[in-house]
Design a protein that fits this description.
The protein has helices at 5-21, 52-69, 92-97; strands at 25-34, 37-45, 77-81, 102-111, 114-125, 128-133, 136-141, 145-150. By secondary structure, it is α+β, with helices and mostly antiparallel strands. A hairpin with a 2-residue loop joins strand 1 (25-34) and strand 2. The chain starts with a helix and ends with a strand.
Length: 154
């Protein structure tokens, strides 16, 4: 199940202020069908990291608001959590906050016959990613990047 743009906008207007009031950044809102249930998934983050209590606190606030506003015309289960350690970096704020992190970049078209590059995100300026992997350095315009995601060593 895809979330419509209109429903996404409504949910974002309701949820984002709640997240920000608690010191969280709203990363993503998605709606999907899992095991015959509609799941409203809200991904949040904060600089110092999330706890289960953080997620529960926001979940309670979201539930109250959604119960009153009732923007979703069908049954769903609300899940609030972290976007995960291999998450895609979607906003400029996320990119800047993760400077110095190991990332995987997937290109729209091959560069030097390769479709991806794994390295450290050293700089993001003028819509350009600067990446380093050992002696290899790569500077790539954001428009040429299909996906940039955190890629920590485990």
């Amino acid at each position: 199940m895809q979330i419509t743009e209109n429903l996404y906008d409504i949910l974002e207007k309701l949820i984002k202020p709640l997240a920000e009031d608690l010191g969280f950044e709203l990363i993503e809102i998605s709606l999907e069908k899992r095991d015959e249930q509609n799941i409203l998934d809200v991904a949040i983050d904060k600089e110092s990291g999330l706890s289960i209590d953080d997620c529960a606190k926001l979940s309670r606030k979201i539930s109250l608001v959604l119960d009153v506003e009732d923007p979703i015309p069908f049954k769903y289960v609300l899940e609030v959590g972290s976007p995960g350690i291999f998450r895609e970096l979607k906003t400029e704020m996320e990119i800047i906050r993760n400077l110095g992190s190991r990332v995987k970049v997937v290109f729209n078209l091959p560069i030097n016959k390769k479709k991806e590059f794994i390295g450290t995100l050293s700089e993001f300026a003028d819509q350009t990613f600067n990446l380093v992997n050992g002696q290899k350095k790569l500077s790539i315009p954001q428009a040429d990047v299909k996906i940039i995601q955190l890629f920590p060593k485990i």
